[in-house]
Amino acid sequence: MARKLWEWIEPFASYGFNKSHTAAYARVAFQTAWLKTYYPTIFLASLMTSNMGDFDKISAEIEECKKLNIKVMPPSVNYSFVEFGVDKDNKNVIFYGLAGIKNLGEAVSVAVVEERTLNGEYKDFEDFLNRVPSIVINKKTMENLVKSGAMDCFGKRSKLFKILSEILDYHQRKQAEKNTKQVSLFGSSSSSGNTIMGEKIFKDLDVKDDSISELEMLA
């Protein structure tokens, strides 16, 4: 009986595995084709999120968005989500996810988005520095945000990048004043707002430019 049963099973092994997989893949192919046809923006945003970290795949998916007349907006600390997301006011627009910026990380992205969700958009670079947690304010993270274009809403990319060290140093001094309630080296207390140095650093931040390319940070 066992031998007879095995004789039934043996020929099935030559096609059973392939047949089951063919059926399963056909179903998945039908489901994804349906989603892409009727919900292309949501589908592609989800696909790019699933491929975060694989910049070759994301690049290919952005090209697919272009073919479907779907606009992929560059990252911004003032409108991007942690993941790739769809603009609620325009279903043909995808926001590049902050976590999709090279070497930025999910924890930093979550911190930036959570603060913006709770207290509104960041008014300027100084407002951003004053509101985000310390996990965000380090030179490497800030360089990644600037180079990716996520801070173009605050001023010229080249200017931001050039004075980034000064900005961070100024912010650290200001925070130290605030914490210790001591008079700063610039002769103002922590409650007096911007120092002369702070005003000098921030006053010339203009509209965005592209003299520092985001290509090395994004797909």
Quick description:
With 219 residues, the protein is mainly alpha-helical.
3D architecture notes:
This protein has 219 residues and is mostly helical. It has ten helices and three strands, in the order ααααβββαααααα. The protein has helices at 2-12, 16-38, 40-50, 55-67, 106-119, 125-131, 139-148, 157-162, 164-180, 196-202; strands at 71-73, 85-87, 90-95. A three-stranded mixed β-sheet has the order 1-3-2. Strand 2 and strand 3 form a beta hairpin. The chain starts with a helix and ends in a 17-residue tail after the last helix. Mean pLDDT is 83; it is low at 189-197.
| Spatial strand sequence of the major β-sheet | 1-3-2
Instruction: Tell me the radius of gyration.
Output: 25 Å
Q: In one word, what is the shape? A: elongated
Q: Please tally the helical runs, counting DSSP H or I stretches of 4 or more residues.
A: 10
Beta strands, count = 3
- Seen as an oligomer or otherwise, the chain set is single chain
- Helicity level: 40-55%
Distance between the termini: 61 Å
Query: What average pLDDT do the residues reach?
Result: 83
Structural class: mainly alpha
Question: How many structural domains?
Answer: 1
Which sequence of SSEs, written as H and E, runs from N to C? Answer: HHHHEEEHHHHHH
Low-confidence stretches: 189-197
Strand content: 5-15%
Largest sheet: 3 strands, mixed
Please describe the topology of this protein.
Elements: H1 2-12, H2 16-38, H3 40-50, H4 55-67, E1 71-73, E2 85-87, E3 90-95, H5 106-119, H6 125-131, H7 139-148, H8 157-162, H9 164-180, H10 196-202
Helix pairs in contact: 2-3, 3-4
